[in-house]
Amino acid sequence: MIESRHADIAIIGAGPAGMAAAVRLAEAGVHPVLFDLNATPGGQIYRQLGNPQVGAGVMGEEYQHGRSLVEAFARADIDYRPLSRVWWIGREGAGYDLGVVQHRAQSWHAERLILASGAMERGWPFPGWQLPGVMTAGAAQILLKQGALLPGVSPVLAGSGPLLYLLAWQYLQAGQSPALVLDLAPTSRYHALLRHPRRAWHGRSYLLKGVRMIAALRRAGVPVLQGVDGIQAEGREAVERVRYRHRGHWKTLPAALLLTHFGVVPEPQLARSLAIPHRWETGQQAFLPERSEALAVEERLWVAGDGGGIGGAINAEREGRLAALEVLQSLAGKAQDGLARERAVLQRARRRDLEARRLLETLFRLPGDWLEVQPEDTLLCRCESVSRGEVERAITQGAAGPNQLKAFTRCGMGPCQGRQCGESVARLLAHRTAQPMDAIGYYHIRPPVHSVTLGALAAQQET
Ligand SMILES: Cc1cc2nc3c(=O)[nH]c(=O)nc-3n(C[C@H](O)[C@H](O)[C@H](O)COP(=O)(O)OP(=O)(O)OC[C@H]3O[C@@H](n4cnc5c(N)ncnc54)[C@H](O)[C@@H]3O)c2cc1C
């Protein structure tokens, strides 16, 4: 008979949020089990930290900041399970059942759960984004962090968000000069900050970092164009050219590699598969799970880090600690003075972090009509090759919501399980039916939320 393994506390994700939660729990003598997809702890930002192939100066200060947390995590008494993917999750009794594949399938039951599954890059369709040679800046950064891999050709970077500049700067430090950086954000956004001095002040550290990176790129002769739109990748079998509009003029540039970035959004699959209510947050331009100030979404479920809303790595670490304090309090069954003081300090710092993030949201706000101005044949769902035109026709034929659109067109049914097209489909529906994003909602997410082989399931470990 297949029985579930039991955990008092399970954490999903070994990024800053999950690691900080686990370390804080272990400090209090509570030993969680922690599942993470990757081979080493660190999550997105501290991925492969300390990789000797990558020079210490290449990745920047934020990356090095994670060292003490990764070391504390390595020392702590935690049942850490790397290379483990949680592919389904469900409520059972007062806790949660988890389907996990760590080489073979396992079933787990957790009394309490911290979801720290982080963020992903926003899927943002444009003509030619399906061509080989077009990839996201985040994916290129993973190759750099994990394998010290540089493109070998000068890439064009295009889109909106701090990661665009960070990667361009990291490439420069690693000796690979980008050909061009195309930023959707117009220069006027920076000038407009003068009208929001409070926001600029709170976000000054981000601002200074950005200015320093742009200055370094310009000094190295890398053109940085702001206020660009109409980005397209052109080519027959792979990208050969990048087309864009700048100051009203169309330009075309030969390119063998286009790296794009359109911001990050919470990884939706696990929270959505539990049908946790979400709301559209206009500042972040994303659906966020509804959490209390104490990061709780249910009595025994907490969402910490970027999975609950994009706050950056330092904030994720604070939220991980906060979630751990809430778990400790729930285990104790009553309020504890020491925990309350620690919680108050963390909450104050968290409010400051989130205030500072608003600067990035102002600067890198994406244009609301981006999808509507794309040509009809632009693919919305790359997995199932469904175009914007096909989705629009299905809406005209009466598909009333994302799930009906899925049934009409197959968009969202491919291997990415809707991660790349979910937001676009909701945006198009909202636009065409003149409804708010909250009224449109999102795909119903069902397991498997990650690919899992029949072999792994057949070899389910018996306990
Ligand atoms: C591609 C990318 C690159 C980024 N690079 C930078 C950067 O260079 N600098 C910077 O300041 N910020 C960067 N960010 C933002 C930064 O990653 C976050 O602010 C920070 O890492 C959030 O921490 P977290 O703990 O919430 O989530 P993450 O660090 O994202 O950690 C989440 C962890 O959960 C795991 N996970 C998710 N789903 C499952 C599952 N089903 N089963 C098991 N494990 C799962 C993931 O593998 C991951 O290890 C990046 C974000 C992305 C998406």
TrEMBL record:
Record key words, sorted: Oxidoreductase
GO molecular function terms attached to this record: oxidoreductase activity
Residues of the FAD/NAD(P)-binding domain: 8-320
Gene3D superfamilies on file: BFD-like [2Fe-2S]-binding domain, FAD/NAD(P)-binding domain
Domain SoxA A3: 385-460
One Pfam family named in its UniProt record: SO_alpha_A3
Taxonomy, superkingdom: Bacteria
Designated name of the protein: NADPH-dependent 2,4-dienoyl-CoA reductase/sulfur reductase-like enzyme
Organism listed in the record: Modicisalibacter xianhensis
